[in-house]
Request: fold
Amino acid sequence: MAKNNYSVANVEAIKRWSPVWIVPIVTVLIGAWVLFYHFSHLGPQITLTTQSAEGIVAGKTTIKSRSVDVGVVESVVLSDDLRQVEIVARLHSGMGKLLRHDSVFWVVKPQIGREGVSGLGTLLSGAFIELQPGMSGEARSEFALLDSPPLAPPHAKGIRILLDRERSGQLNAGDPVLFRGYRVGSVETSEFDTKARQMRYQLFITAPYDSLVTSNVRFWKDSGVTLDMSAQGMRVEMGSLTTLFSGGVSFDVPTGWDLGERVKDRAQYQLFDNERSIQDSLYTEYKEYVMFFDESIRGLQVGAPVEFRGIRLGTVAKAPLVTTNFKQDINMEYRIPVLIRVEPARFEKIIGKQFDYQKQLADAQTMGLRASLKTANLLTGALFIDLDFYPKARGNSTGPLRVVDGYPVLPTMGGGLSQIQQKLMAVLDKVNELPLTPMVSEATKTLAESQSTLRELKKMLASLNQITSSKAMQSLPQDMQQTLQELNLSMQGLQPGSPAYNRLVANMQRLDQVLRELQPVLRTLNDKSNALIFQAPESEDPQPKRAKP
Reply:
């Protein structure tokens, strides 16, 4: 048997690593380093929410701060509820310190506003997002994207004021805030509070003018031109050129008041309609009274003055006073209740001392103190309430004022045009009672008899002329002839063709014409006694009667 000629190989484990592995290991390390460097140098990611993404393009729209690129928009998508747009952006490394709680983002694009044209540089480069860094220590990652820049930066020194107004006005964001005509701030926001059902404005007044806002200042709406036609007359006010077209807000301390103390941020004030209306806020103490008028109160408005001999004593609060506790029937005795407020501080400011006005009003009614409506403006028909003493009413009321539904009642009387109308109606009634028709009839008869007398006189003159020219007249004594000649000369002055005769006939004709023209007036006065003041109803034109067949 033959032997195999081969040998057995010895297998040994490799104790050294191969240099071939250096390449993949280095590749992996470089890749890991690149990834680490990339993610370690990524800036913070933020989310911006807005109603419209007009002009915003993912991967192209940049984020700038003071014209320096600090980030870029990564994606633009709709929110889950599809009601707004969510913009995801990434800031550059090291820009995270710009993100604070009060940081502000807004879109910069071409705009035309009251301040002029802005954003023209974006016509070629496209819109971008401007970042205004915040100052607070808290960091955020979600912000609201505004359509326009904020009026005052968060770090600006000043004070913010809240104004409340029941009625909406023409104030918008950006309108000026003025102090004695000088601009010291701007209107930041304008919104309607649905819970309070009133307008609310937020103002920002820059430093050092924020020291002007004290506890006693009053704010009012400052429009370009104001035309006021009230019980005080016609009043035209023109503001500054700044508020001529857009309007604004002015504030100041009322005349005669102390400056007061400085207020804190976001203090609340009331916004008045105009500068004159702020005087109403100075008198907070008052006593309410009721007056009953038996004449029309048309033209009496809320806010009309209540005066005593030209000195304002109070204000009309409600005209008429609507309440279910006053039960009256619609008849000749119906009277309209009006609620007034007597403000004693107005009167005390003039006389220089305090007085018990409630007791004095009660005592004054026994001396004839009465309230009446008077015309304040003939052009607008505005009325005001005047208090004065009337001698004829003295002693008609004694004791304290009577109270109706908790309100003291001040006595009233007719006044102004009502008194004139009543007196004029009384005069017209007396004229109407005069027997004018019999008088006209007698005058017509007298005129007819006068005409008959003239005719008889004419006949007598003719007879007298015949007598004086007859032959028998020559045989009469000389004295009688002279007498008849003188009588003839006298009568010739009254015969037809003479001036006296012509004047007498003309006067009779004019009297006849006047009486004929007076008859329609008398018939109208018989039908309506006040036709001399108020126009009488037009009568139908007389229709001619047709001929009888």
